[in-house]
Amino acid sequence: MYFTYILSCADGSLYVGSTNNLEKRIKQHNESKRGAHYTKIRRPVELRYHESFATFREARHREAELKNWRREKKLSLFAQPV
Fold first, then answer.
1. Which of 6, 12, 31, 65 is the most exposed place for a label (fewest CB within 10 A)?
2. Burial 16-40 (b: 16+ CB within 10 A, else e)
């Protein structure tokens, strides 16, 4: 199982990523030196949305799609059931 996710950062910004281990990746974003540089300087982060996929390719494709969306459109996903 693979995931595409959206995090909200302490500064109010959003971060979109993908992984095969969602729990571990969120922990990395919040605690590890291995978290993305963007989130490392904007901690703490909170998982706001995620989707699951059968392949990493599908998850990365969705990640790229979401990264091109405007902030308002991403925020509209939070109101939908996961």
1. 12
2. bbbbeebeebbebbbeeeebeeebb
pLDDT in tens, the chain (82 residues): 999 999 999 999 999 999 999 999 999 999 988 778 999 999 999 999 999 999 999 999 999 999 999 999 999 998 876 5
d(CA 42, CA 81): 26
Q: What share of the chain is helix, strand, coil (3-state, %, to 5)?
A: 40, 25, 35
Per the structure block, which two tokens stand in for 51?
């989707």
Q: In this structure, what are the phi and psi dihedrals at residue 75, rounded to the nearest 5 degrees?
A: -60, -30
**What's the predicted TM-score (pTM) here?**
0.93
CATH number, domain containing residue 6: 3.40.1440.10
